[in-house]
Amino acid sequence: MDKSQEIFEKACRLMPGGVSSPVRAFRAVGMTPRFIERAKGSHIYDVDGHDYIDYIGSWGPMILGHAHPEVAEAVCRAVYRGTSYGAPTEGEVTLCEMIIDAVPSVEMVRLVNSGTEAVMSAIRAARGYTGRDYIVKFEGCYHGHSDGLLVKAGSGLMTQNVPDSAGVPEAYASKTLTAVYNDLDSVKALFEACGNQIAALIVEPVAANMGVVLPKPGFLEGLRKITEDYGSLLIFDEVITGFRLGYSGAQGYYNVLPDMTTMGKIIGGGMPLAAYGGRKEIMEMVAPSGPVYQAGTLSGNPAAVAAGIKTLEILKNHPEIYVRAESQAAKLEKAFLENIKKYDVAAVCNRIGSLMSIFFTKQPVTDYSSAASSDLKRFKEYFAAMLAGGIYIAPSQFEALFVSGVHSDEDICRTELAIGKALGQWQR
Ligand code: KE4
């Protein structure tokens, strides 16, 4: 038994599923998770000494690579000045100013500790601002684990949503309606039915929680128009795309400005930090300036803020990081496509910038139902071959592959070889 298995057995006696977050348990791939000892740059090392090229990057934050010396030093310096004060600091003001300068639609911002908290708070602010109750989300989009968003479509179009998790009361789920990603007609139908009761529509401008699914041309613009027409707010959940697709995120990339934006991951540089922001008149609804209550002991924590400031500083001063991450990702996409063709594998690849996914299905993947048509057995076999080849990718078909600004040419060559072996394994 290797050390990961040994520790995992103990962990399962002490923690639900042996992990601190479900996807880490490797259940979708039927394997024992690797317990990680350390990481540096584009590599991650498990407790058995295995060295992997890392394409999870902590699910998005590590665009600069692990243990970036300047980020690490900034966190250490902050920690020696005290880990938390529960009082305002200049660092929070600096980070908020950087976010406002970077994200086109954000005029005011509140720091919180997780993407879930950012989304939950943004939705509360949207309801407080509009005085309306309903929220629209998309099948296959994930926005954290707040009750009202752990829902799935009811049987009929207007049948209110039903809980998608135990412990979520029907009443909470019923205020969330579900539309189909990339299908503006499904959105129009909901708004025609009850648009004047819809507080907000929340969307991942590039979906990355059903695997990576890109918005079709006109989709985001269509959401902007429909929400404007009905006086509802458009919320871009940029927890993944923020500072990933470029320094101004998806809204800068697509030039579509939402009313509110949620952010996380990269803005914390790997520390627990997230944020929600938007038009001033909306954000001034948030306590203590307005009636929408939201609070947090560790919000704006100095160590996390130090990591965020340094990370954004480096990204702002070195835009070539985005160019390099994209070009390395493009090489991987090319390797996937060449091997899909060479071995005649039923698979497609979706990529935007340094964010990508391979789906084991014949059809284009443009929404949740096409993503769900993927062959999950094939994905498991692909995952096992990649891990055996020293490549650490998300242990689920419905996650993304993240390329950092520090994946080397050697990393890419090794990954190209592993892709060839993984996709060639089924050749008769
Ligand atoms: P957190 O609460 O996990 O910080 O953020 C929730 C969240 C919100 N919005 C989007 C678009 C997200 O992708 C996430 C979280 N992403 C997952 C990965 N798909 C986090 C990994 C996990 O759950 O362990």
Q: Describe it for me?
A:
With 428 residues, the chain is of the alpha/beta class. Helix content is 38%, strand content 15%. The chain has 14 helices and 16 strands. It has helices at 3-14, 69-80, 90-102, 115-130, 170-173, 184-194, 219-230, 249-254, 280-283, 302-317, 320-342, 368-371, 376-388, 409-424; strands at residues 36-40, 43-46, 51-54, 108-112, 134-138, 151-152, 162-163, 176-179, 198-203, 233-238, 260-263, 274-278, 348-352, 355-359, 391-392, 401-402. The protein has a seven-stranded mixed sheet, with helices on both faces. Helix 6 (184-194) packs parallel to helix 7 (219-230), helix 11 packs parallel to helix 14 and helix 13 crosses helix 14 (409-424).
Q: Keywords for this structure?
A:
4-stranded mixed sheet, about 425 residues, binds ligand KE4, 7-stranded mixed sheet, 16 strands, alpha/beta
Task: Report the helical percentage.
Answer: 25-40%
Class from helix and strand fractions: alpha/beta
**What is Rg?**
21 Å
Strand portion, in percent? 15-25%
Catalogue the ligands: ligand KE4
* Assembly type: single chain
What is the terminal-to-terminal distance? 33 Å
Inertia-based shape: globular
For the largest sheet, list the strands in their spatial order.
4-12-11-10-9-5-8
- Quickly count the helices: 14
